[in-house]
Amino acid sequence: MITFSDIVKKAQSLIAASFILAVSCNSAASSDTEKPGNTRPQEGCIREICTVRKTDGARICYFKVGCIRQDGWDTLPEIKFWCRIVTLSKDSVLANVIENRKGLAVFSRKMIDSLERIGHLQRFRDELAGRFRVDSAYHIRFTSGKNHFYRFDKIGNHMKRGIELFDSFGVDPFYAQSVLLIESPGSNKQKSTAGAYGNFQLMPFVARKYGLRVDRYVDERENFDRSAYAAARLIKEICIPYARKWCETYGFAVDENALWFKLLALHNYNAGAGTVRSAMAVLPKNAQGNDLIKTLWKTSAGYFRSEAQNYSQLALACYLEFEKQNELHAEVTRVPYSKN
After folding, report:
1. How far apart are CA 155 and CA 169, in angstroms?
2. Using one digit for the tens of pLDDT, what is the confidence trace for 193-207?
3. Which of 179, 225, 172 has its CA nearest to residue 319?
4. Which of 105, 214, 275, 279 could form a disulfide with 271 if both were Cys (CB 3.0 to 4.6 A apart)?
5. Domain ranges of the chain
6. Residue 247 backbone dihedrals phi, psi, to 5 degrees
7. Read out DSSP for 13-47?
8. What integer best gives the mean pLDDT of the chain?
9. If you ran DSSP here, which 8-state letter would residue 327 be given?
10. 312: DSSP letter
């Protein structure tokens, strides 16, 4: 009979083998400042339309946002955590600290399920806490990998088309890319429990508001171009204006060209402007600029909780992993994008 002591010993050996105290995205490509002869602007954000050629001859277009690394977003534990999760197999789990997203070690899903089944999972958490010196006030969670969903290699021409369409609608392509990477990488067949559907995960009432047909016979959310049109209008007419309004209402400086502001608008897209307002209302006024988003990640108010907090974290992590995968291939062109 296998005793709990045996399980702990086995777990300890796994911990030693899969130590992940510094979970990172580890981009295959160096940043512009790391390349000899290149200089980076002191202000602003490097933005380029990049086209890469894959080994099979396919070409992938994406929107490069240099200030994600320039401003250090990629070094944050929350982003490192999600970078690991979106690339980890669903048969694996990452032990992590809920309060700070610190990654500890990877284990098999089967092992964790077995411990839970026999009632020893909390004892295993205590063992992990001792091994990794986790503060007693913190809690350890086991989060399953999601690389079965985040199939960035399957996104095909959707990214290029999304960038072109949003640009033609007068909406920053950053939003198209972010939503596509989070909501439906490689597929438009996912339907949320709330009823959101299509590549841009539009709710039925939102789709109808912008002229899409959604009924028992036809669902135009399946049509990429029509869905992109509705999503762009939603961002342009609701998400951005209300991000600006909540900032002005609650005493935060507004910079619509800044990455942090675009992340705030993405929160409106995901959770709804009213839900984001409840969180903005309780944010400390010294949380300006980038700190506003970082503080929002740790703020719970009304319906603004776990999933809503995570949305911009996922946006950044998905971008970093998508960029990493594509920069493994031969780059064809890099065209500066100067529109705000």
Report:
1. 21
2. 888 999 999 999 999
3. 179
4. 275
5. 4-24+89-144, 154-336
6. -65, -45
7. HHHHHTB-TT-----SS--GGGSTT----SSS--E
8. 88
9. T
10. H
β-bridge mates for residue 51, sequence order? 61, 333
Distance, in Å, from the CA atom of 39 to the CA atom of 321, rounded to the nearest integer, reads 24
Distance (Å, rounded) from C-alpha 273 to C-alpha 231? 15
Q: Alpha-carbon distance 312 to 98, whole Å?
A: 17
As separate numbers, helices (DSSP H) first and strands (DSSP E) second, the chain gives: 14, 6
CATH of the structural domain 154-336, one choice from 1.10.530.10, 1.20.1260.10, 3.40.50.10860, 3.20.20.140: 1.10.530.10
Q: Report the alpha-carbon distance of residue 154 to residue 197 in Å, rounded.
A: 18
Residue in 325, 41, 40 with CA at minimum distance from that of residue 181: 325
Regarding beta strands 330-336 and 140-144, do their DSSP bridges make them parallel or antiparallel, or are they unpaired? Answer: unpaired
**H-type alpha helices, the chain:** 4-17, 67-70, 77-87, 109-117, 121-132, 158-168, 173-183, 204-209, 224-234, 240-249, 259-271, 273-280, 290-296, 306-326
87, 91, 96, 99: CA torsion to nearest 10: 80
Q: What share of the chain is helix, strand, coil (3-state, %, to 5)?
A: 50, 15, 40
pLDDT at residue 70, as a whole number: 92
Percent of the chain with pLDDT over 70: 86
Strand ranges in the chain using DSSP code E only, listed in sequence order: 47-53, 59-65, 92-97, 103-108, 140-144, 330-336
pTM of the predicted model as reported, rounded to 2 decimal places: 0.87
